[in-house]
Amino acid sequence: MVPEYAGLENLQLGQMEGDRTVISASARFFNPNPFNVTLKKADMNVFLNDKPADHIILDSSIFIQAKDSFNIPLTLRIDMKKVLSNALQSLISDQVKIRVEGHAIVKRGIFPVRLPIHYEESEKLSSLMKQ
After folding, report:
1. How large is the average pLDDT for residues 46-61?
2. Which domains does the chain have, with CATH numbers?
């Protein structure tokens, strides 16, 4: 079974780097499997309100215990002008649609498995900013 997404934690706005704003967070997951696995790599595209926000490649190994929760640290460098071109709409609705597309490579023993990543949900901006 595929690990279950449980939400974002510790969302923090960082400093500006040119036209980009650095945002860090932890993506929380739960491994429903009765066995340990190791996340070897993840390649993901992140979209905010259906606009490309960033491309993330995780290439460090993360050990994931059986039937346990785990966090994956994320750092996004987002061009806020592109993403928030419809900022008025976002502020009025207090919602941001987050979509992640890509794949992950996990290993159990010597067997690597490629898992698709497809996640989409709307988050309240106010709740994200309180974390």
Report:
1. 88
2. 4-118 (2.60.40.1820)
